[in-house]
Specification:
Chain A: Keywords: ATP-binding, Nucleotide-binding, Transport. The complex is a heterotetramer of chains A (240), B (294), C (334) and D (408). Chain B has 294 residues and is mostly helical. Chain B has 11 helices and 2 strands. Chain B has helices at 2-30, 38-56, 60-83, 91-113, 138-160, 162-172, 174-179, 184-206, 216-231, 236-257, 262-276; strands spanning 128-131, 134-137. A two-stranded antiparallel sheet of chain B has the order 1-2. In chain B, strand 1 and strand 2 (134-137) form a beta hairpin. In chain B, helix 2 crosses helix 9 and helix 5 runs antiparallel to helix 8 (184-206). The longest helix of chain B is centred in the N-terminal third of the chain and has 29 residues, at 2-30. In chain D, helix 4 links the parallel strand 3 (101-104) and strand 4. Classes of the chains: A alpha/beta (240), B mainly alpha (294), C mainly alpha (334), D alpha/beta (408).
Chain lengths: 240, 294, 334, 408
């Protein structure tokens, strides 16, 4: 069991964005997190990656308590993340963007550059390596997010809606990349709205609604779970 | 007794500082730009006020309306031709563009109006109200009262009128306001115009107190920044109370500490406030870190 | 590897020419301009590490410049310590000041950081004026003109030129190293987006501090060169907001976040200053009026400085440029 | 990238050749070139330009009368707004324009920086207006000064208190309370410190010394401290902005002092009187000579005033133009003797040059101390604003009126 989230909560003034959520993820597993907009999914990622301090609860990674540690410490320990709203380094080239991530483990510039080129090939951005970050399309920026996170050689990768805003063909191109990550031994937690991706890629799924975990299980179990349908499609539909 | 008089003098000085800073507060709050030429706007306002005085014999308080109008125009022209083209450039460009404008304006004044010190002589200029031992100078008191009324008027304008709400919306979130159909470009013009008009008013109020010369702006520009940031960027009353605080700090530290250190004291306080409440004392407590003007 | 060797061959050429310049240029006024050019290129280069690469726009670098000048001169005047040691002391004091100022202000973003650095510089200027018995206040510091290698005072301007050149080359090497290594990449990441940089494993405060330490140390050392060259300075000349602004301007005009940007900026702004100062004697104020307008135009139309613009010059035009270059060099050998 | 750096190299070389072009400028045979270094822009522009006008008029006057042995005298101007600019401009004049003698500078730090460069290049630096003692204390070989230094000012402060104030106030010198306020640049600080040193040596009780930043826009705390100290005499060394502020705020806060000794930087100008009106009356001004003075003692002042009015269509703003004019005439007299702009010959001739007090347009005698080049016969006078006019009141030999001190 690579990561354990126990009773994690986050209070913003009156709003309890995340309310005592707990789940575990085993090594090399792909866990999906789904839930309607504003359910607290991204907040949960921010809590795990240290971007936001936890109000209560603990996060243990490889047996070590990393609750509310600084983001760069957590990253060094092996958790990489992408942002739902893409945050490329706009003024520098794609290659340089990924090299910044690569320096996390690389000892020299040469090593970082080589590893970054490798990553770019994996995500299919190698042809655009000299383009400036801002000039990329949304799809490429999403790929760049993944590439940057991957460059830090994480053991656990948090993917926050990397498929959102992509057209079907771009989604198809992204799937093998994600599956490829698992082969290279990386555990993944993925937040996604596109059910087709979640159902086909994830081993297990956690459903978050109003900041609480309302269900957990295999894709099949979740597909016909009363609570989940009600959460997504509201009351009436579920009775029909 | 001197302590009480120091407090009064400090408050009156504070009134002057808030009057000068309110215009900057609007510009810095809305257009998000450190305007290094703010001092020069004040210098130009005072020169115009003096020209009305010397050519038509108009008392600064009388010609104030005209000065306000001139400065409003100047503000719009500056925004339209200097600031607008560089709105999306990095902060460093904006700082140096306004800096270039400041150097140019100072030397334009030196070339055209020479380095002489011009001042106004009016009847009420040295009148003083004496309450026992305490003395309150009339022009400074008027400046103080004008500062209060402008703060209130500005507050009402920004809170109650539609344009005011639009300006506040742009100040808080430019993109969101833009999406809601607010013509951001027009609001910027208006904000810079009103901001400069406020400086025009300050110029008119300061004419009886200070004499005007080309490099007058440099003595006020840093204080205006300190006041605005101390008071809380963009918050209506922030600049007003910020000004009072700086005025009091300067007067008190001059008497209690040493007159050579009074400027150092309020800069030190400015640093402390920046570190512990970067969004300023009176601002709406917006998240301190992200109140950046990237 | 080829790329690096090809580049150094050219740098060697640039170095040789720089070394020979004093032989060509005899007039002290030109040497004076060249020395100031190298001095400002060094300091703008140091500023560039923090401002250009790291995106932390400091307008308080006059603090380190002044501390450097005062440290070495006061040590020299009061205790007779040779300015060579003063160089180390100046670097140490400036670095300490850099850390002292950086630690609290690095939490601030954008213009808040800039305003904090301006405020720090003003406080230190006023304190320097106030503590007359330590710093001689507004009387300023006057170092007697006793030429000698141990007290780092030279009779010949060319010696100062070489001293400035060595200092510049050191600063260039450091910037070159920063640009090529993790520090440079991390600083650029911090400049582009601090939060995203932190989640990629960058200890943002630590790397901002590294940039500050290098930047402050170099500026402090350059302050010593200034003191030894001018032999007279006062709080107003070394602790001055306009100085901080000028070095930032040089880096910006040249090209922020580039290795050669500051040198290019200095090569334009410093001579421009000299020429403007002595022009338009009839109309006082006209010279700086033009300086202000030029400032606005350069910054508005070339926000990223000259470097990117020059890089985009089409190949065809550059090759023709080469022919002209050989022609112009003969002319200067008069 | 590589091609670009070639381009950069070319740019630098071209810029240098541009500077080189003017090399041939200096040294034409038929003109005698003298450098003139003054702050013509920036904060000090007002009195910088006023001082330069004095030197300019002297040169025009001598050129009208046939110049020197038929050669025209030419002033090569340099705008030095601060110490750095002074160093660069001095360098330009010396090395670029081949100037061998420079006059200057109104402000002490400009004079200090520029004379440093002049000394190194053995070029004569003749100071006509800056007052800081340190300029001549360095005992440099090529520095001369015709105007009185700060220590002479404090001598006048103390002598005036001893001779006039004590008697007018009917107090023993020991009981007179003296306060000093000064702006914190080299001008204010040097005069204030010299005055404090000398006053304490003479046993005069200095109750407070307050420095403040020159660019300040509030002096209420300074005035309130003065009210607490309640001095008999206030020595105020200020520039124009703070001089006006101090007078206005003193009136506002009800601070009165029997004897207000102002200084040349701020209290002498028409602008000051225009700004404060009748509040100026009674204020003394320890400064270079002004224009309502005993004319027998200052021959040539009327001609100067006429020349000034003809050229600038206005009366002089202050005494700075006059003292620079008188100093420049001495320079031109010495130059006429030597016949060429040669620093060593000019220095020797200057040391031999003698003039009686009362024989020059400022009334100053001229005799240079060979050690430090300071004109020992120059002295500031005491003037007083009486009904809106600045009249010389002390010492007797130049005064037109009696100093008016009322013990209100």
């Amino acid at each position: 069991m690579i990561i354990q989230v126990k009773e994690v909560a986050k209070q913003f003034g009156g709003l309890r964005a995340v309310n005592n959520v707990s789940f575990d993820v085993n090594s090399k597993e792909i866990l999906g997190i789904i839930g309607p907009n504003g359910a607290g999914k991204t907040t949960l990622f921010n809590l795990i990656s240290g971007s936001l301090p936890v109000t209560s609860g603990t996060v243990t990674f490889n047996g070590e308590d990393i609750t509310s540690q600084k983001p760069f410490v957590i990253c060094k320990k092996g958790i990489g993340r992408t942002y739902q709203v893409v945050k490329p380094f706009g003024g520098i080239t794609v290659l340089e963007n990924v090299m910044v991530g690569a320096f996390n483990k690389a000892s020299s510039t040469k090593e970082a550059r080589e590893y970054a080129l490798e990553i770019l090939k994996k995500v299919g951005l190698d042809k655009k390596k000299d383009q400036i970050g801002n000039s990329l399309t949304i799809a490429d920026k999403k790929r760049l997010e993944v590439a940057k996170a991957l460059a830090t050689q994480p053991k656990l990768l948090l993917l926050d809606e990397v498929m959102a805003g992509l057209n079907p063909s771009e989604v198809k191109e992204m799937l093998p990349i994600i599956r490829g990550l698992r082969e290279s031994g990386i555990t993944i937690i993925i937040i996604e709205h596109i059910m087709e991706v979640i159902m086909s890629v994830c081993d297990r799924i956690v459903v978050i609604h109003h900041g609480e975990k309302i269900a957990e299980g295999t894709p099949k179990e979740i597909a016909n779970n009363e609570e989940v349908i009600k959460a997504y499609f509201g009351e009436e539909v579920s009775h029909a | 007794m001197t302590l009480l008089q120091t407090l009064i003098s400090g408050l009156l000085l504070g009134g002057i500082y808030s009057l000068i800073s309110m215009g900057l507060n609007l510009i810095l709050g809305v257009v998000r730009i450190i305007n290094f030429a703010h001092g020069e706007l004040l210098m130009i306002a005072m020169y115009i006020s003096f020209l009305f005085y010397s050519t038509m014999g108009l008392d600064p308080y009388v010609s104030a309306i005209l000065v306000i109008a001139c400065l409003f125009l100047l503000g719009i022209i500056t925004q339209r031709f200097l600031i607008q083209p560089i709105l999306d450039t990095p902060a460093s460009t904006k700082i140096f563009a306004t800096l270039g404008l400041s150097i140019a304006l100072q030397n334009l004044a030196l070339m055209t109006l020479s380095a002489d010190h011009f001042s106004v002589r009016t009847s009420y200029q040295s009148d003083v109200i004496n309450i026992g031992e305490l003395a309150i100078s009339i022009p400074r008191l008027i400046a103080f009262i004008v500062a209060i009324s402008v703060a209130v008027l500005l507050y009402l304008f920004l809170k109650k009128t539609m344009t005011g709400k639009a300006i506040r919306a742009v100040a808080m979130q430019r993109q969101a306001a833009y999406l809601m159909g607010v013509n951001v470009k027009k609001i910027y013009l208006l904000a810079f115009g009103i901001g400069s008009a406020l400086v025009g008013l300050a110029g008119a109020m300061l004419m009886p107190i200070y004499s005007v010369y080309p490099t007058l702006g440099t003595t006020f520009v840093l204080i205006a920044f300190v006041v605005v940031v101390l008071g809380g960027m963009g918050s209506m009353f922030g600049a007003f109370f910020g000004g009072l605080i700086i005025g009091l700090v300067e007067a008190l530290s001059g008497v209690l500490l040493d007159t050579g250190l009074k400027e150092a004291v309020y800069f030190a306080i400015f640093i402390l406030v920046l570190l512990f409440r970067p969004s300023g004392i009176f601002s709406l407590g917006k998240g301190a870190e992200e109140v950046g003007l990237k | 590897m080829m790329h690096i060797i090809k580049k150094n061959k050219f740098l060697l050429l640039l170095g040789i020419v720089a070394l020979l310049l004093p032989l060509f240029v005899h007039s002290k006024f030109h040497l004076n301009t060249l020395i100031l050019l190298l001095l400002f290129a060094t300091i703008a280069g140091a500023w560039n590490i923090l401002g250009g690469y790291g995106g932390q726009l400091s307008l308080g670098h006059t603090i380190f410049f002044g501390l450097g000048a005062y440290t070495s001169s006061l040590l020299y005047l009061n205790y007779g310590t040779s300015p060579w040691i003063g160089l180390i002391a100046a670097a140490a004091i400036s670095i300490a000041a850099g850390i002292f100022i950086g630690w609290p202000t690095f939490r601030l973003k954008g213009p808040y950081f800039t305003l904090a650095t301006i405020a720090f510089a003003e406080v230190i200027r006023l304190l320097c004026l106030y503590w007359r018995d330590l710093t001689k206040g507004s009387m300023g510091i006057n170092i007697r003109f006793e030429p000698g290698l141990s007290n780092l005072i030279f009779r010949e301007y060319s010696s100062y030129y070489y001293f400035a050149l060595v200092l510049f080359l050191i600063s260039l090497a450091i910037v070159y190293w920063v640009d090529r290594t993790r520090v440079g990449y991390y600083l650029k990441a911090i400049r582009e987006d601090e939060d995203s940089a932190e989640t990629l494993g960058i200890n943002v405060t630590k790397y901002k501090m590294i940039a500050m330490v290098i930047s402050a140390g170099l500026t402090g050392v350059a302050g010593v060169l200034y003191a030894q060259f001018m032999l007279f300075f006062e709080p107003e000349s070394v602790f001055n907001l306009n100085f901080s602004i000028e070095i930032a301007l040089i880096a910006i005009v040249g090209g922020m976040g580039t290795v050669y940007g500051p040198l290019l900026g200095a090569a334009i702004i410093v001579p421009l200053n000299e020429i403007l100062r002595s022009s338009f004697p009839a109309l006082s104020g006209m010279n700086y009026f033009i300086y202000g307008i030029v400032l606005v135009l350069i910054v508005s139309f070339m926000p990223n400085g000259l470097m990117p613009v020059l890089k985009r010059i089409p190949k065809k035009f550059k090759s023709r440029k080469k022919v002209q270059v050989s022609g112009s060099r003969k002319k200067t050998a008069s | 990238m590589k091609k670009f750096l070639m381009f950069l190299m070319a740019a630098m070389l071209i810029v240098l050749t541009a500077c080189g072009g003017k090399e041939a400028g200096g040294g034409d045979s038929d003109t005698l070139e003298i450098g003139a270094l003054f702050p013509l822009s920036g904060d000090l522009a007002l009195l910088g330009e006023e001082s330069f006008r004095g030197a300019e008029l002297a040169v025009e006057e001598i050129n009208k009368n046939g110049g020197i042995d038929g050669k025209k005298v030419k002033l090569v101007k340099g705008d030095a707004t601060d110490a750095d600019a002074a160093q660069a401009e001095a360098n330009r004049l010396v090395n670029q324009e081949n100037i061998k003698a420079i006059v200057g500078s109104f402000s002490s730090s400009i004079s200090f920086a520029a004379s440093e460069v002049a000394e190194r290049n053995s070029v004569l630096y003749w100071e006509l207006g800056a007052v800081s003692d340190s300029i001549t204390d360095r005992k440099y070989k090529y520095v001369l000064r015709t105007n009185p230094p700060a220590s002479y000012f404090s001598k006048v402060h103390v002598d005036f208190i001893n001779d006039v104030v004590a008697e007018k106030l009917g107090k023993n010198v020991k009981d007179i309370k003296v306060a000093i306020t000064h702006e914190d640049s080299s001008y204010g600080t040097t005069i204030a410190e010299e005055a404090k040193k000398l006053a304490e040596k003479e046993g005069i009780n200095v109750v407070s010394v307050q420095g403040y930043s020159a660019g300040t826009n509030d002096l209420s705390s300074v005035v309130l401290n003065l009210k607490k100290a309640a001095p008999d005499v206030l020595i105020a060394v200020s520039y124009m902005n703070d001089a006006i502020l101090l007078t206005r705020q003193s009136a506002e806060l009800g601070f009165k002092v029997p004897v207000f000794l102002g200084s040349g930087g701020g209290h002498t100008m028409a602008d000051f009187q225009e700004a404060v009106g009748d509040k100026a009356d009674g204020i003394f001004d320890v400064d270079f000579p002004q224009y309502s003075i005993n004319r027998e003692f200052t021959p040539g002042m009327d001609e100067f005033l006429k020349m000034y009015k003809d050229k600038y269509s206005k009366d002089p703003r202050s005494g700075h133009s006059l003292s620079n004019y008188m100093g420049m005439k001495v320079v031109l007299d010495v130059l006429a003797e030597v016949g060429e702009v040669d620093p060593d010959k000019l220095k020797d001739a200057a040391l031999k040059y003698k003039a009686e007090a009362g024989k020059t347009s400022t009334g100053w005698g001229v005799e240079f101390n060979p050690e430090n080049g300071q004109n020992t016969k120059s002295e500031p006078y005491v003037h007083q604003w009486i009904n809106g006019e600045l009249i010389t009141v002390w010492p007797k030999k130049v005064s037109l009126e009696e100093p008016q001190i009322s013990n209100k």
